């Protein structure tokens, strides 16, 4: 079985992929372009791709030898699932392994945005801190506030648990189907969540339905002091509308881990003080990247052994 791995992996995962599968690794860590994805589909039996690798419809248009894309990550918006299916290529992902780490980054962003942590650190590093003062850099209090979660799946629920049990926050959520949750949380339509919340966390997958689901109208529906936190995908938010809202001080602030055209982050966004910007750190710990790799490996093993795939998408 010929296996191509699109990016460097942790030591543990690389060793297994090489020793057990004789995997070949691409030499650079940049995303695969369409031509490269197309060639790989023609030459390999299985691929281990990830975020940003261009498995768009065009990549499946040529001859396809591959039978499996064992994606590294839960988000599969870089793969045209319909085109993959039509070409007879199975797709698997790594759900669960990413949940807690991504929820931790959502809380990091929520706290940083509320408490102006990035802005304060920039001020201190610039040598502009004049010392503690009762009215200096006042941010938003978090404990006991209202949290709106958009997309109450694995990550949404992990954020809700942290916010409810750790910070005594009230929770409301908008999702496709109401959930049976071990804490009080109200299912509401999206506009009602936006109009109610002090903090809004986005945790939906990037799909045709969620594309730009937060645009100018949704930002206008938010309370003027509310903060928007996005750990989902960049294209869930209309980035231009968000910049306009932040420039006008229409919402309290934003905390972003993901962007519409990564790694490009608009200069207008980077100039603003009321936004906290992280470089897609959601799952970036060694344990989690090991766990994601091991999950992809379990899917490869099942494929090799002709068994049912554990995590089909
Ligand atoms: P999940 O368990 O499938 O949860 C997604 C939730 O979104 C589900 O509850 C789903 O509703 C809801 N949803 C889907 N479409 C919707 C729509 N149109 N309107 C309202 N709700 C909708 O997925 P997850 O594991 O929590 O991951 C969510 C996303 O986070 C991933 O797809 C990925 O893009 C992103 N992510 C980012 C990072 C990072 O590094 N920042 C890391 C991991 C994942 P139902 O339950 O009713 O189906």
Q: What order do the strands of the largest sheet run in, or round the barrel if closed?
A: 8-7-6-9-10-11-12
Average predicted confidence as pLDDT = 98
Alpha-carbon distance between the two ends: 22 Å
Shape type: globular
Task: Report the total helices.
Answer: 11
Number of strands: 12
Q: Which residues sit in consecutive blocks of at least 5 with pLDDT less than 50?
A: none
The overall number of domains is: 2
Largest sheet, in brief, is:
7 strands, parallel
Domain D-isomer specific 2-hydroxyacid dehydrogenase NAD-binding: 107-282
Pfam families: 2-Hacid_dh, 2-Hacid_dh_C
GO molecular function: glyoxylate reductase (NADPH) activity; hydroxypyruvate reductase [NAD(P)H] activity; NAD binding
Domain D-isomer specific 2-hydroxyacid dehydrogenase catalytic: 16-313
Structural account:
This is Lactate dehydrogenase. Belongs to the D-isomer specific 2-hydroxyacid dehydrogenase family. GO terms for molecular function: glyoxylate reductase (NADPH) activity; hydroxypyruvate reductase [NAD(P)H] activity; NAD binding. It holds the Pfam family 2-Hacid_dh_C. Keywords: NAD, Oxidoreductase. The chain has 313 residues and is α/β, with parallel strands linked by helices. It has two domains: 115 residues, 3-Layer(aba) Sandwich (Rossmann fold), CATH 3.40.50; 168 residues, Rossmann fold (3-Layer(aba) Sandwich). It is 36% helix and 13% strand. The protein contains eleven helices and twelve strands. A seven-stranded parallel β-sheet has the order 8-7-6-9-10-11-12, with helices on both faces. The chain has a five-stranded parallel β-sheet with strand order 2-1-3-4-5. The chain is globular, with a radius of gyration of 21 Å. The relative contact order is 0.14. The site of NADP nicotinamide-adenine-dinucleotide phosphate has 31 residues, from helix 4 and helix 6.
């Amino acid at each position: 079985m010929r296996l191509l791995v699109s990016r460097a992996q942790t030591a543990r995962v690389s060793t297994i992929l090489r020793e057990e599968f004789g995997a070949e690794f691409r030499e650079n860590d940049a995303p695969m372009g369409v031509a490269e994805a197309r060639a790989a589909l023609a030459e390999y039996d299985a691929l281990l791709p990830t975020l940003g690798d261009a498995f768009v419809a065009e990549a499946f248009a040529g001859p396809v030898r591959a039978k499996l894309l064992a994606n590294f990550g839960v988000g599969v918006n870089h793969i045209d699932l319909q085109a993959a299916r039509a070409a007879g290529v199975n797709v698997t992902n790594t759900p669960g392994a990413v949940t807690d780490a991504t929820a931790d980054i959502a809380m990091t962003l929520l706290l940083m945005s509320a408490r102006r942590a990035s802005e304060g650190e920039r001020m201190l590093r610039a040598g502009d801190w004049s010392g503690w003062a009762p009215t200096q850099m006042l941010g938003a209090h978090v404990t006991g506030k209202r949290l709106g979660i958009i997309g109450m799946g694995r990550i949404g629920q992990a954020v809700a648990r942290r916010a409810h049990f750790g910070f005594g926050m009230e929770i409301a959520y908008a999702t496709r189907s109401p959930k049976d949750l071990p804490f009080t949380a109200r299912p509401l339509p999206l506009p009602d969540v936006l109009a109610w919340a002090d903090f809004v966390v986005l945790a939906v997958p990037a799909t045709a339905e969620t594309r730009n689901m937060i645009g100018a109208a949704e930002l206008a529906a938010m309370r003027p002091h509310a903060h928007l936190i996005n750990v989902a995908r960049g294209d869930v938010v209309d980035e231009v509308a968000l910049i306009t809202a932040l420039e006008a001080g229409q919402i309290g602030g934003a905390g972003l881990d993901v962007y519409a055209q990564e790694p490009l982050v608009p200069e207008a966004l980077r100039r603003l003080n009321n936004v906290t910007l992280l470089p897609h750190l959601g799952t970036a710990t060694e344990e989690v990247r090991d766990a994601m790799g091991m999950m992809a490996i379990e899917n490869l093993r099942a494929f090799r052994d002709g068994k049912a795939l554990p995590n089909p998408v």
